[in-house]
């Protein structure tokens, strides 16, 4: 076994060179390119439990977990078996199956806001959030939607608005190719700022179809909800007839069995799920209140569809994964492991004289390279990203695979154990010492 240092990653370098000739940036999703931390990304040959294996023969302890899905570790034998069995019976029918009914019943039983409601499957979180907002607009007959600064809800045009902070600003596209007209009904609020949401709703509440929020923000790094924030949004939406959408694509089945809504006891009208719900296969979902979901075609006038939606392989992976979670809930163990990791990182950073703010909810966590609380995107952006980049390189060289951005959460899986966490902390102590002077 070799570590992933500069000399030992010749194959990944060569593959990255080749990839860049035919794939934009060499990757099929931008952050995989390691642009913000430098170096070539390791190319992966296989994954098992808490480990990734690279083209260069390195074994990496994985805290990316395929960006969230790998709650129970990679390639769980029961999940792999379920997918192989399903594959043998045909990859896709474009027609209804028994497994979809079983799966819908299980998802609705596990997630509080779906308990007496309905759920529709899609192939990506992007489709789930895009569709939930279309449904909210169709149901309310209103056009405006509200999202929080720094929140990521996938790459649908209407949600690709990241710019702006402070008071609610009219949407400015966060990507070329998004016409300003398309996002002019997308309003921005600072995350965790209930007073700003109240002020906006007092002014325009009767024009707002939906407020969409990551109940635990994960795409600016892990940022827990301020006390009373989710409850406040809930009350505001009820008062103004606004559809409250929790984007639990990352937090669903992650921060609790029933997601952040269970953990914090706040029930949204619609919920978006993804990542873990598909057990590593392309599958996501949106659902919630029955009266709202009855707007979806063919029951109602809001069109939403998908050739591969609810395909048997994805459903088999999702069903097997959720059944394992139901049978053997990993949450107490995950909480303890992630606390050991998060607290340990903060202590080791302090010992090296490096300011580090540790945010954690359950098994998702981020160490921000700055002093002081991180409660929103502006706080997160105050981190020393150059220092993070050096830390990332040091960790990777020691076989620890972290997301290559300061603004991502790390995930602990049920396949990790205390020994792996302690190995990670030893590596971190070395990494902090190495970057302390710089
Ligand atoms: C990952 C993510 C999405 C997008 O999901 P994709 O499957 O990548 O399209 C949406 N919302 C949140 C909160 C996410 O973390």
Tell me what the structure shows.
The chain folds into 2 domains: 10-63 and 330-435, Aspartate Aminotransferase, domain 1, CATH 3.90.1150; 77-327, Type I PLP-dependent aspartate aminotransferase-like (Major domain) (Aspartate Aminotransferase, domain 2). It contains 13 helices and 15 strands. The longest helix is centred in the last third of the chain and has 21 residues, at 331-351. The strands form 3 sheets. It has an 8-stranded mixed beta sheet with strand order 4-11-10-9-8-5-7-6, with helices on both faces. A 4-stranded mixed beta sheet has the order 1-2-3-14. It has helices at residues 10-22, 77-88, 98-110, 125-140, 194-204, 229-240, 259-264, 290-293, 312-327, 331-351, 377-381, 385-397, 418-435; strands at residues 44-48, 51-54, 59-62, 118-122, 144-148, 169-170, 186-189, 208-213, 243-248, 270-273, 284-288, 357-361, 364-368, 400-401, 410-411. The model is unreliable at 163-168 (pLDDT under 50). Helix 10 (331-351) packs parallel to helix 13 and helix 12 crosses helix 13 (418-435). A hairpin with a 2-residue loop joins strand 1 (44-48) and strand 2 (51-54). With 438 residues, it is an alpha/beta fold. The chain starts with 9 loop residues before the first helix and ends with a helix. The site of pyridoxal-5'-phosphate has 15 residues, from helix 4.
């Amino acid at each position: 076994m070799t570590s992933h240092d500069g000399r030992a990653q010749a194959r990944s370098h060569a593959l990255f060179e080749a990839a860049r000739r035919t794939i934009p940036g060499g990757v099929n999703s931008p952050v995989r390119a390691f642009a913000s931390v430098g170096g070539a990304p390791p190319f992966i040959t296989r994954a098992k439990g808490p480990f990734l294996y690279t083209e260069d023969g390195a074994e990496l302890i994985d805290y990316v977990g395929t960006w969230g899905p790998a709650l129970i570790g990679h390639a769980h034998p029961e999940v792999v078996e379920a997918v192989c069995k399903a594959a043998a019976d045909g990859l896709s029918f474009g027609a209804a199956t028994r497994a979809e009914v079983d799966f819908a019943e299980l998802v609705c039983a596990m997630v509080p806001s779906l308990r007496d409601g309905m759920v529709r499957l899609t192939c990506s979180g992007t489709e789930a959030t895009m569709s939930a907002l279309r449904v909210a607009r169709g149901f309310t007959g209103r056009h405006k939607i509200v999202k929080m600064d720094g929140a990521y809800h996938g790459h649908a045009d209407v949600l690709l608005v990241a710019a702006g902070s402070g008071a609610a600003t009219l949407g400015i596209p966060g990507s070329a190719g998004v016409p300003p007209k398309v996002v002019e009904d997308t309003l921005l609020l600072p995350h965790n700022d209930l007073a700003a949401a109240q002020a906006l709703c007092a002014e325009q509440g009767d024009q707002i179809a939906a407020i969409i929020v990551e109940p635990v923000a994960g795409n600016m790094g892990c940022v827990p909800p301020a006390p009373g924030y989710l409850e406040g949004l809930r009350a505001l939406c009820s008062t103004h007839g606004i559809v409250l959408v929790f984007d639990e694509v990352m937090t669903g089945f992650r921060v609790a069995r029933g997601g952040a809504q269970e953990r914090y006891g706040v029930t949204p009208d619609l919920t978006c799920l993804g990542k873990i719900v598909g057990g590593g296969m392309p599958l996501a979902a949106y659902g919630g209140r029955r009266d709202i979901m009855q707007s979806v075609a063919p029951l109602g006038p809001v069109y939403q569809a998908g050739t591969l939606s609810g395909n048997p392989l994805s459903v088999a992976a999702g069903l097997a994964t959720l059944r394992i979670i139901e049978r053997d809930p990993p949450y107490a163990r995950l909480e303890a492991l992630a606390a050991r990791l998060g607290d340990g990182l903060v202590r080791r950073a302090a010992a090296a004289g490096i300011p580090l703010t540790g945010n954690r909810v359950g098994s998702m966590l981020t160490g921000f390279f700055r002093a002081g609380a991180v409660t929103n995107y502006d706080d997160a952006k105050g981190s020393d990203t150059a220092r993070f980049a050096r830390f990332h390189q040091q960790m990777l060289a020691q076989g620890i695979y972290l997301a290559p951005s300061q603004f991502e959460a790390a995930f602990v899986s049920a396949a990790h154990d205390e020994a792996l966490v302690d190995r990670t902390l030893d590596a971190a102590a070395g990494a902090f010492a190495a970057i302390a002077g710089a």
